[in-house]
Amino acid sequence: MLYAILCYNDEAITSAWTKEEDDAVMAKLQVVHDKARKNGQLGPAIRLLPTTSATTLRKAQDLVIDGPYAETKEQLLGFYIVDVQSLDEALQIARDLGKANPGGAYELRPISIYQPGKELQLT
Amino acid sequence: MTDPAWIDAALTSARPQAVSALLRYFRDLDLAEEAFQDACLRALKSWPEKGPPRDPAAWLIMVGRNSGIDSVRKRARQQALPPEEAISDLDDVEAPLAERLDGSDYRDDILRLLFICCHPDLPAVQQVAVALRIVSGLSVKQIARAFLVSEAAMEQRITRAKAKIGQANVPFEAPGFDERAERLATVAAVIYLIFNEGYSSTAAEADARAPFAEEAIRLARLLLRLFPTEPEIMGLAALMLLQHSRAAARFDENGEIVLLEDQDRGLWNRSMITEGLALIDKALRHRAPGPYQIQAAIAAMHARAATAADTDWNAIDRLYEALQRMTPSPVVTLNRSVAISKTEGPEAALAMIEPLADQLAGYFYFHGARGSYLLQLGRKGEARIAFDRAIALANSAPEAAHIRQHLDRLQAEGVYSA
């Protein structure tokens, strides 16, 4: 089985970490990553940049909004990772996706750390 | 979950919001700071035992307000301290208070707190020191070390600055639209000032001042959370992130300056670059360009070039042209001449800066750039004179050392000073 583990925390606090505190957290996480990797369990691990760098596309109105998706009435159903040159390119893909599957919204958030992990297959 | 590092980060992140809300209650900076300090002490005692509150900022404001009221009463000698129990159990009040702290309220609080640090009568260095002390909570010792003065001297400067701020009478009502925009622009300027104080010209200083640059970026992110649709704030954050991404490549192992085109781009911080590029992309979508956005866009051109040779100097030149129109200054023209030297050659660059000779006579970079254009044109004697002038105006040993390299090379070729 493949599981996604989604990470939530108070961004105001995590962004107040000093570089040393941040490094210490990352080092502790790395130990866990290594263990899961050894067990052949670890796929991609990703750290997103802060929500201040986010842009949201509301599909119905084709409306681009600065900031993260803040509504609570919809649920997170999936995500894509795209390799693009600019926000506009990413927005174009999101718009195309939105035409294929209207309703709801997409939040576009740049990725700060990407560790590919092992190649995965759904069983 | 209440480990010391978490508490430390929670207190740091809550500080601007809590101090600025307490300032609104008490309308007195010293009292607000004292109340916040007291609330922090109580947090250090209470949180490890009782667990962290849901909303640390709301908790600190609540406790700080009670403590501030106590100390006002104590000073008035009207009444003894209320019993500790009266403020020790805050779980019930926390939720409604947090609701009252809606976005627009504390947004103006924080903006006001930052704004009062930008008192026009204060010299730039003091604006920076006061903002770092009050808003960011850096210790006087840390600030003194960065400015190379004694702790006592810095303490005195901050005290004097705060007295001036106290007389400024910044109104406490919510500002109107225009006034808010004006405050935002002033605050952006002081944040960039903090950043530039951190962007030191020597490797030795870079260590002591690195927290300034990081603090400035943190404050810009804070402003962005409060004003998420302001393109110039996005531009400011992007500009600082893109410049700071190069920090590790700016000096070599001997502490010598490494010019942008010679830097090892592998040392650039990719995460900061990604964040900066994302922010400038967001800002440009607003089609409301401003000086921070344009400077960030210039920094982005460098960040996007895989090697120095890949740099799109034509695009950079057009951006400088736009910046020149928006904020004309001899320094902008000087910077533009670097792009011109790449696109049209050193002769055109030299022609562009010659008219600035009087205005920039005392400016290190002017003589450095002029010397390098003259050198490229083979006018070695004149280059030598320009470099001699630059070295006399250098602000730091690495700057002087950098020019010294040119002079040594000229000397090796037999070109001596007059």
The whole-number mean of residue pLDDT values of chain B reads: 87
Order of helices and strands of chain B: HHHHHHHHHHHHHHHHHHHH
- How many helices of chain A in DSSP terms? 3
- CATH class division of chain A: Alpha Beta
Q: Report how far the terminal alpha carbons of chain B are from each other.
A: 70 Å
**What is the 3D form of chain B?**
elongated
Order of helices and strands of chain A: HHEEEHEE
Kindly report how far apart the N and C termini of chain A lie: 6 Å
User: Helicity level of chain A, as a percent range?
Assistant: 25-40%
Uncertain segments of chain A are none
CATH architecture of chain A: 2-Layer Sandwich
Order of strands, main sheet of chain A, comes to 3-2-4
Quick rundown:
Chain A is of the alpha+beta class and 123 residues long. Chain A is built from 3 helices and 5 strands, in the order ααβββαββ.
Itemize the secondary structure elements and their pairings:
The complex is a heterodimer of chains A (123) and B (418).
Chain A: H1 11-14, H2 19-38, E1 45-48, E2 55-58, E3 63-66, H3 87-100, E4 105-108, E5 111-115
Antiparallel strand pairs in A: 1-5, 2-3, 2-4
Chain B: H1 4-26, H2 29-50, H3 56-76, H4 85-88, H5 91-100, H6 103-116, H7 124-136, H8 140-146, H9 151-166, H10 177-198, H11 203-226, H12 231-244, H13 270-284, H14 291-304, H15 313-326, H16 330-343, H17 346-353, H18 364-376, H19 380-393, H20 397-412
Helix pairs in contact in B: 1-2, 1-3, 1-6, 2-3, 3-5, 6-10, 7-9, 7-10, 8-9, 10-11, 11-12, 12-13, 12-14, 13-14, 14-15, 15-16, 16-17, 16-18, 17-18, 18-19, 19-20
